[in-house]
Task: structure prediction
Amino acid sequence: MHKLHRLIPCLAAALLLLCGCGSKDASYTDFFAMDTSMRFTLYDNAGLAAKEEILRLEALLSRTKDDSLVSALNRGEAVEDTELAALLHKSLAYTAATDGAFDVTIAPVVSAWGFTGDSYRVPAADELAALLAQVGGEQISIHGDSVTLAEGAMIDLGGIAKGYASDRVAEIWAEAGVERGLAALGGNIYCRGTKTDGSLWRVSVQDPNDPAAYVGILSLSDAFAVTSGAYERNFTENGKFYHHIIDPATGYPADSGLTSVTVVSHNSGTLCDALSTACYVLGEEDALALWRKIGGFDLVLVTADGRVLITEGLEGSFDSSSAANPYVYEIIH
Ligand code: ADP
Ligand code: MG
Result:
């Protein structure tokens, strides 16, 4: 982790798209939403409606917009909304499945560190301990479509909203008959079909220690891929490196021995987003245990001691041959 502090905090997508042959005639739509640079690569206009959908979701789910449903919840109001209730149901299921490593009620702690805005600070240990009393799945009550939070509790959907948005993009593109396209919502990728020449989409997994390099390239079709890494939002104080993925067990930035986690699934961007955050917190051993237990997704884990672990489902899709770096690669069975 110590190597990371020299990196300039950046909003660059963790998963970069490699343009190559087959992308001719593509049109690009670039926009900024959910605190992230987003890009659609499409071959006709049918897929553009998905941009409106992302803006709708941002207005609903943002923590920093006062008129969002999430802000109303965080002010202590009861909120009645089918979609939000369903997304919180899923969030709670991921909290249970990950032993609390993924937990949207981490919001007060994220705020204490200043990651909701731009004035970062290191909270005192007793301040964090007090805030952790308001963190946990039991702080959220859902009855039908009605949601309330326990007094003082708050939620932050930053670890799952972009993944959910990518699922909505997939649905909208399917309904619109979009045959091929790629949505990059920051480090949350959804690719549909293939490129026009029939080749697979190529998505690179960034080297967490070097923004200009990658650890390998995923060749994907009809898939979601999400990376969580400490290099997205961080600061250094008194020589110590702090970042925005918080371990709900301690209130401090996760320090699990992983420097980046990529989750790939053919079914759900929401799952990829929640589990990339969770696995980053869990660390190598527990992340692989989760992969074995739940299944239905694959992982690329980069460890602080220089290894890249690729679960077997990606053996044929992950190519590190052109990556000039010091990592040792291992397929996990
Ligand atoms: P990014 O938003 O950079 O793509 P992640 O998906 O990993 O990265 O989500 C990190 C964001 O999720 C943080 O900015 C914060 O809002 C929130 N968060 C931080 N720690 C957790 C956690 N343990 N569980 C759920 N959400 C978290
Ligand atoms: Mg996430």
Summary: The domain at 7-64+158-332 is CATH 3.10.520.10 (T-fold).
